[in-house]
Amino acid sequence: MDSSSQYIDDSHISTNVSEIQQTGFSGGVGTIFIAVSLGIFILLTIIGNVFVIVAIWTEKNLKGLANRLILSLAVADLMVAILVMPLSAYNEVNQQVWAYGPELCMLWTSLDVLCCTSSILHLLAIAIDRYWAVTNIEYARSRSKQKIYLLIGGVWAGSSIISFAPVFGWKDPDFYRRLEIEGRCLVSQNVIYQVFATCTSFYIPLIFILLLYWNIFKQARKRIRSRPGAAAVLIEKNSNNPGSSTSPQSIEDQTEENRDNPQDHISENGVSSNQAGLGRLIVLAKREKKHAKETTEAKRVFIFCWLPFFVMALMMAICSSCEPDGIIFSILLWLGYTNSLVNPIIYTVFSPDFKNAFKRMLCGVHYSSQRH
């Protein structure tokens, strides 16, 4: 089809959009409340992810390769907050009536898919890294830069392919009609594209994330049962040194080293780890229960935020009569965005290193002097 016939006259679009705005747009208290609430939401998302980026960039003990994935995730979530959420918030205030033309709509929807897909795929990359660390002792002790950068590069490359596919061929035949008549800016509703995009952006990564964390859980349980004393003495050492901030992964690595060196199975007070008794095992059980809870909560939040939206997105494409009400669409969309707000909390707040870094950033010299 000739390209000139695809474009609707801009003035004609503006006229129809104006008519919709006159009937739908309201400057009342409800609109102000929505604008302020979404503004605060966006600001908190920006602050949380900026804190993560600055902490990893400035703190020496956070510069490990594993945290490069967290850094890249924070960048993706920051892009969601800066490039996607503001126009989406304006769209909500403007009763979901798009008033910026087809070109900006196409760019905005592509960036939306790019940033959100990248955020989701980073969670898969983090799960892969943790699985390798648990199942491969050598990988846990010395991560390969090539593997970490390959994971990050694969995430961004895959997200780019998914997001810009409509621009290079997977067109939505009703894209311009929808803008002209309804004033709605949506990502391509081509059925084949939606099936491809929803599966590769969410459903397939979700399945792999669940499988990977299930195997991580089984490996961790097997490791604890095989040599509980070695792990317990490490936790006792860490609890005797309040200033230390041993991560779950470092505990696992140290435990593996103690397996290879039986003479290290002696605690600092000279008591054999095999004679440590029930107390150490209780400490171990509590620590492992906490780590399992953190992982479970991370999966629950991810599923809670994104599953409703992707079910809706798939249904909208394959069932024309299944399109939800505008309010429901908005709620599910922003519920998905919530994952970018919560990610910095899930993947950093449980880490003592990140906690201390955030406190130093907030309290400055005063907090550092207190610690010393």
TrEMBL record:
Topology of this chain in the membrane: Multi-pass membrane protein
Keyword Membrane: yes
Record InterPro entries: GPCR_Rhodpsn (IPR000276), GPCR_Rhodpsn_7TM (IPR017452)
Sorted UniProt keywords: Cell membrane, G-protein coupled receptor, Membrane, Receptor, Transducer, Transmembrane, Transmembrane helix
A GO cellular component annotation in the UniProt record: plasma membrane
Domain of life of the source: Eukaryota
G-protein coupled receptors family 1 profile domain location: 48-347
Location in the cell: Cell membrane
A GO term, aspect molecular function: G protein-coupled receptor activity
UniProt cross-references to CDD domains, sorted A to Z: 7tmA_5-HT1A_invertebrates (cd15331)
Sequence intervals crossing the membrane: 32-57, 69-87, 107-128, 148-171, 191-217, 301-321, 327-350
Polar residues bias (residue ranges): 237-252
SMART domains: 7TM_GPCR_Srsx
Coiled-coil intervals: none
Protein family according to the UniProt entry: Belongs to the G-protein coupled receptor 1 family.
Protein name: G-protein coupled receptors family 1 profile domain-containing protein
Classification lineage: Eukaryota, Metazoa, Ecdysozoa, Arthropoda, Chelicerata
